[in-house]
Amino acid sequence: MIIDCPHCGSRDSGEFFMRGQAAGPRPEYADGQDAFAVYVYDRTNLAGMQREHWYHAAGCRSWLVVERDTRSHVVGSVAIAGKAVA
Amino acid sequence: MTRKSQGGLVDRALPISFTFNGRPMQGYSGDTLASALIANGVKIVGRSFKYHRPRGILTDGADEPNALLTLHRGARALPNSKAPMVELVEGLEAFSQNCWPSPRFDLMAINGLFSPIFVAGFYYKTFMWPAAFWERVYEPLIRRAAGLGKLSDRPDPDTYDRSHAFADVLVVGAGAAGLTAALAAARLGKRVILVDQDSRPGGRLLAERCEIDGRAGAEWASAAIAELAEHDKVTVLTRTALFGAYDGRSYGAVEQVSEHLPDPASGMPRQRYWKIVAEQAIFATGATERPIAFTGNDRPGVMMASAVQTYVNRFAALPGRRAAVFTQCDSGYAVAADLAAAGVEVVAIIDPRSGDKPGVDATAAVIHGEVVGTHGKCLKTITVRNMDGKTEKLKVDLLAVAGGWNPNIGFASHLGQRPAWSEPLQAFVQDTPPDGMHFVGAAAGRYCVSAAIDDARGKVAALFGREGEVAAIFEEPSLAPPLVVSGCDKKAFVDFQHDVTVSDVVLAEQEGYASVEHLKRYTTLGMATDQGKIGQVLGHALLARQQGKGIAAVGTIAARPPHTPVCIGALAGIHRGEHLKPTRLTPTHDWAASQGASFVNAGLWKRAQWYTRPGDADWIDSAVREAKAVRSAVGICDVSTLGKIEVAGPDAALLLDRLYCNAMASLAAGKVRYGVMLREDGFVFDDGTVARIADDRFVISTTTANAVAVMRHIDYALQVIWPDLDAKACSVTENWAQVAVAGPNSRALLQRLLPDIDLSNSAFPFMGALEGRWSGAPMRLFRISFSGELAYEIAVPTGLGDALMRMLTELGSDLGCTPYGLEALGILRIEKGHAAGGELNGQVTAGDLGLGRMVSKKKDFIGRALAERPALAHSDRQVLVGLAPVDPSHRVTGGSHILPVGVPVSAVHDAGHVTSVAFSPTKGRWIALGLLARGADRIGEVVNVVSPVRETSMEMIVSSPVFVDPEGERLRG
User: Fold this and answer.
1) Within 13 A of B573's CA, how many CA atoms are on the CB side?
2) Is residue B854 in some structural domain?
3) Domain-located, residue B478
4) Residues contacting A42, CB < 8 A, separation 6+
5) Is the bond preceding B562 in cis, omega lying within 30 degrees of 0?
6) What per-residue confidence (pLDDT) applies to A82?
């Protein structure tokens, strides 16, 4: 798998750490346990294009939102996580 | 010798000596092991997998199911080498497998008499019960009886290299189509990599008598290679087998670098693993000839017609003197002609197709019929049945079988693309290969040379927008389907390598294994090292016939990587032994080694475990002596491996408040605080210290194991969760050498090192932090204690770590200054009840560790909401306790289970386990930390501590986890 890091260019997936499907925005404590349960545990586990959080550990240390097809490892868009539209 | 005196592509001026099963033989430069064996008259090369039937060379390529030989001896022994794929080299030693004492006389051939019990599903039916017999009886029995060569069990003495390459066009296969494609792309200025597994490019052009542009095929191939060599963007890799297609348009290949050299230069790798990334990949991988299922089709002397052609034309080695050709495609007639031209008597061409074949010249009498039997240990006669059902026997020692062609399309399946059945071609093809993958030539069903060349030229032109040059639409010929001769029996083989017969497939279908995937698992059809290249399609056609369906409806198996077997050594490359992972050395490693340290691997780090001194009986003695020195004088220990992260910025304090479960924003500058981080699910993630160096600058420490994970976690918090926070974090683990100075004499020692700083208790109290200078460089000093003694940690730039350690040793010589290692560190922290790796197991809460009161109720932080779930605060949870044996002579072991006294030792009564153990010099006995259900309420209770693995049990008394100085007076003194 090759990921086009917005900072570093086209890099092998071995340089990255994959966290999993990108969760929605973090709730606040006041939102309660149920909101956190959804945030921590609920994932769709879909077969197809999925938005994921990848960390360029051996590069710029940026967290990225990577679109990856879970069936073929085809990479779609790659964006800086903090700036990505949720 | 069966070698012709002239012709072929072998160099008779360069003879090569080799041995086969110890017998000296001779071949020529240009030979493969298979062609040399044929030239030496060898008919039987090994025994079959299940029935130990004698087998001869069947093919000329990677599909060879029979001639699997072990090359070399000792540690370099290479089992399962396919003889047609082995280039002959001076001194080569080759051995048959799966036979004893010899392939001609094999005692295990008795298996053949019991063949009824080796039917489809034999493993499942025979070796089912009792389960206890599996490991001790059945498995060794099966392994001895049915083996595929043996590994040497010794370290591989060879080295392996690895390379990466990038190309616009990767061309796989250097036959007519591949060379055409590579030339076309090269002429367009593209970066081209051409790989071919053979030692000599040309593919079938080397085996068939054909002309291209008025030149013999082999000559044309040489000219093409010569032209490619003039293009500086073209790389030609011969002896290089592509083994897999992977995502991101990347491909794996293995190049034989020195295997074929009689005397490779020192340090030359045996093989090189190539990772190739290519925008476009053109697969000119040719086609594999498929066998015909008839009784006795595995007898030595029965050979694929294309292989016969290769051995006769390319190697001038004659596999027989009197031949017949059993063919249902026109290519068989060319083989008959080649045999006749080489002086072999062709007795008959047996063709089951009715009617004359216009445009095909028959060299011999054509019998419209089928071969229904073979006879002799090595082939002596065949039985032929003509269309009228009349049989006759023919005396031949060679039967060339041409059952049609299967395009080599397996690489598309590597990326999940299933093949489709083509009715006109009567073969599986790839109509819609994955992006960037193109099949050309015979791999696309264009079997004839001119069609293959047109196809390759046209597809490259189309790829690069030159549609004007695209070839005309291809007229697909009408070809014959895979053939199973009617009435053939259990000696008619479909998968030669795994001894799967026609009757096995028929039986499996009768028993309900109706899908090709089930058939594969049940009969092992297609599971051997050839991965079904020879017989799989034939087996699936047979399954379709049994079900009364078309082959398209039954389908075939998706091929998976590797296409051909790959040595693990090639994949491992140099990453073996100590080179598997990088080694990290602490800044004081050399000093520690000079002090007699024994090192232990802690992740990638080598850490001093203990320092052996004269008089130490064993490592426990050393560790106890070191721990006593810390409790009574002063010890020094390199703790640089702990993660160190600097956090800075106006919002740094707010960030840390959200990362740690306890308050951090309130920490004053010049102070240190112990902190616990939770995961968002509420369990403990990591612990360490937070030192506030300035209002907007902190340095935090992590455990050694989690240094990387905590850095990642902080980056996630800063970049993903709270991108609006104005703070930055950076790992400085590598930048600072940090040394713990612990014990009653630590202040005196450090005061000698830092005479200008007032280290008195009032000026620099417990949990103080300061920045200063030492030896002309920045220095940080923290008054923190893991041992429970008066203690400090001093940090200096990494390059000064060694000098610092030597200076402390020198200054402390009269203070009892003693280096201590990880084992003493463990004793000291276990005596103090501090949690470490054994306790921070990812399943404990702050409350479980007795740190519940630290958890803030006043702020949001990562993990707060879910840590408050009822189950994470339940009173039955296992919590940290101390344990000491009732009998002080007992030694407890880590991992032991804790049960109430007087109940049966079983899982239902399990109440916890021992997480850490140490011999405590303070207590004069072994002590332990453990996680025990309702442990806080059980102080003083005697429990049964059992290790079913070590078969030990002892009574221990539950205590507070803090064994030494529970009031903490020493560290504040």
Assistant:
1) 14
2) no
3) no
4) none
5) yes
6) 80
For this complex, say whether ipTM is above 0.90: yes
Which residues have C-beta within 8 Å of that of residue A34, sequence separation ≥ 6? none
Query: Which residue in B416, B680, B721 is closest to A40 by CB distance?
Result: B680
Q: Which residues of B touch A85 (CB under 8 A)?
A: none
Q: Are A21 and A44 in contact (CB under 8 A)?
A: yes
Query: Measured between CA atoms, how close is B654 to chain A, in angstroms?
Result: 15
Task: Say whether A33 and B720 touch across the interface (CB within 8 A).
Answer: no
Tell me: do B602 and B748 sit in the same domain.
yes
In a domain, B383, yes or no: yes
In which domain, by residue range, is B932 found? 875-972
Contact indicator for B80, B149 with CB cutoff of 8 Å: yes
Could you tell me the end-to-end alpha-carbon distance of chain B, in angstroms, rounded to an integer? 95
CA B577/CA B286 separation, integer angstroms: 40
Q: What's the whole-number average pLDDT of chain B?
A: 92
pLDDT of A23 > 80? The answer is yes
DSSP string, B215-241: EEHHHHHHHHHHHHHH-TTEEEE-SEE
Closest to B850 (Cα-Cα) out of B674, B717, B689:
B674
Determine contact, residues B240/B254, Cβ cutoff 8 Å: yes
H helix or E strand, kind and range, residue B211 = strand B211-212
pLDDT at residue B690, rounded to an integer: 98
Answer whether B646 touches A (CB < 8 Å): no
Q: What are phi and psi of B320, to 5 degrees?
A: -165, 170
Number of separate domains in chain B: 7
Q: Do the domain assignments include residue B858?
A: no
A39 contacts on B by Cβ (under 8 Å):
680
Using a CB-CB distance cutoff of 8 angstroms, which residues of chain B are in contact with residue A28?
Answer: 860
Phi, psi of B723 (to 5 degrees): -65, -15
User: Of the residues B119, B151, B183, which one is the last residue of a structural domain?
Assistant: B151
Residue type, B907: A
| Closest CA relative to residue B443, chosen from B454, B432, B430 | B430
Is residue B103 domain-shared with residue B221, that is, in the same domain? no
Residue that terminates a domain, selected from B502, B530, B549? B549
Q: Which residue has the tokens 């924003």?
A: B665
CATH number at residue B350: 3.50.50.60
Measured between alpha carbons, how far is B863 from B685 in angstroms, rounded to an integer? Answer: 10
pTM equals 0.87
Backbone φ and ψ for B637, nearest 5 degrees, come out as: -150, 130
CATH number of the structural domain spanning residue B885: 2.40.30.110
Q: Which residues pair with A55 in a beta bridge?
A: A17, A63
Burial class (CB in 10 A: 0-12, 13-18, 19+), B945: buried
The rounded radius of gyration (Å) of the Cα atoms in chain B is 37
Q: How many domains does chain A have?
A: 1
Q: What is the rounded CA–CA span in Å between residue B503 and residue B630?
A: 78
pLDDT at B359 over 80: no
Single-letter amino acid code for the residue at B316: A
C-alpha B429: how far from chain center = 30
> Cβ separation of B865 and A33 shorter than 8 Å?
yes
Q: What is the CATH number of the domain that holds A79?
A: 3.30.2270.10
The residue among B324, B298, B299, B319 whose CA lies nearest residue B307 is: B319
Q: What is the pLDDT of residues B835-863, one digit of tens each?
A: 998 999 999 999 999 999 999 999 999 99
φ/ψ of B747, rounded to 5, equals -65, -40
> With an 8 Å Cβ cutoff, are A81 and B719 in contact?
yes
Question: Phi and psi of A58, rounded to 5°?
Answer: -100, 25
Is B865 in contact with A55 (Cβ distance < 8 A)? no
Q: Which residue range forms the structural domain that includes residue A58? A: 2-83
